[in-house]
């Protein structure tokens, strides 16, 4: 595969990890409102754009931003300087709003620009390791164009449907993860209050039917060993689960566990702060149970 000209917008924890996978494999130019975020990528072979106009001529624009509103603003800024050009592609790795995504895609299509939503799941560690899941919403022709590029990031690429489907699946995945985290933290707090050793509880669950990503990864890696924080904020978690809840059919809303998880996550973000790491949810359960549950280093608080 020839080296593609790629412009990458958004170098937060996830964006930086994704862009780093491309730095040695593509003609990559990166942009972030904080220029310091581009420095490690420059050292790895990418070019740092002084301004968003420096990536307007790229064949492919990849966005990895907190919200769809910011994606829309970034693409508007590109359009104001003549990019992307007809025939280019836009790949959005944001955990975005499917309705906004479809509107963005329609606007780009009218200008002859292909679009795929390609949110990722697995965290910055999986992105850096090249094992992250990439969930793609696109028509068949666009998917055929974007798949080889996305496989430079990770072989775990899934075409889940038409435009907006990638974001839909990602939001529902994050709702599942958030609910499993809440249940796992609550169950661990109850076990400790009942005198069960935390590590023994986690080990027992992980050979039983209650296991999940929260019990198999979050509890042992972050609550019982190492640093509590995993690098994902309560504010972003609340945004994702609230968007997932917005997809509910009206008849389901009154019975929805997703809506319950959205409410509890939003409440926690208000109580602990939107920038607080999602794993600090354990502090709520510790306070209510009167037990110290997490054994991890909390120095990043």
What does this structure look like?
Helix 1 (about 15-25) packs parallel to helix 5, helix 7 (about 165-195) crosses helix 10 and helix 7 (about 165-195) crosses helix 12. The protein is an alpha/beta fold. The protein has 2 domains: about 5-165, NAD(P)-binding Rossmann-like Domain (Rossmann fold, 3-Layer(aba) Sandwich); about 170-290, Orthogonal Bundle (N-(1-d-carboxylethyl)-l-norvaline Dehydrogenase, domain 2), CATH 1.10.1040.10. The model has no long low-confidence stretch (mean pLDDT about 95). It is built from 13 helices and 9 strands. The strands form 2 sheets. The protein has a 6-stranded parallel beta sheet, with helices on both faces. The longest helix has 29 residues, at about 165-195. The N and C termini lie far apart (about 45 Å). The protein is globular and about 65 Å long.
Distance between the termini: 45 Å
User: Which structural class should the secondary elements be placed in?
Assistant: alpha/beta
CATH class of the largest domain: Alpha Beta
The name of the CATH topology of the largest domain is Rossmann fold
Largest sheet geometry: 6 strands, parallel
Cα Rg: 20 Å
**Assembly of the depicted chains:** single chain
CATH superfamily of the largest domain: NAD(P)-binding Rossmann-like Domain
């Amino acid at each position: 595969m020839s080296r593609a000209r790629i412009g990458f917008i958004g170098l937060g924890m996830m964006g930086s990890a994704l862009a780093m996978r491309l730095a040695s494999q593509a003609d990559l130019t990166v942009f972030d409102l904080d220029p310091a975020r581009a420095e490690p990528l420059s050292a790895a072979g990418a070019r740092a754009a002084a301004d968003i106009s420096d990536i307007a001529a790229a064949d492919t624009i990849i966005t990895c931003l907190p919200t769809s509103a910011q994606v829309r603003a970034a693409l508007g800024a590109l359009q104001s300087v003549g990019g992307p050009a007809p025939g280019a592609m836009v790949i959005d790795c944001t955990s975005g709003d499917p309705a906004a995504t479809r509107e963005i895609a329609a606007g780009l299509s009218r200008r002859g620009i292909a679009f795929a939503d390609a949110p990722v799941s697995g965290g910055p560690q999986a992105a850096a390791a090249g094992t992250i899941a990439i969930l793609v919403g696109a028509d068949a022709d666009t998917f055929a164009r974007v798949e080889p590029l996305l496989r430079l990031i990770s072989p775990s690429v899934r075409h889940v449907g038409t435009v907006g489907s990638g974001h839909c699946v990602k939001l529902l995945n994050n709702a599942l993860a958030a609910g499993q985290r809440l249940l796992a933290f609550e169950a661990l707090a109850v076990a400790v209050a009942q005198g069960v050793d935390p590590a023994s509880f986690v080990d027992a669950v992980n050979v039983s039917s209650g296991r999940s990503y929260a019990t198999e990864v979050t509890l042992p890696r972050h609550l019982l060993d190492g640093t509590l924080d995993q690098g994902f904020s309560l504010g972003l978690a609340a945004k994702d689960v609230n968007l997932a809840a917005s997809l509910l059919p009206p008849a389901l809303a009154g019975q929805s566990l997703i809506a319950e998880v959205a409410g509890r996550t939003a409440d926690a973000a208000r109580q602990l702060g939107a920038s607080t790491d999602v794993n600090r949810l354990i502090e709520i359960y510790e306070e209510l149970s009167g037990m110290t549950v997490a054994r991890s280093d909390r120095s990043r608080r």
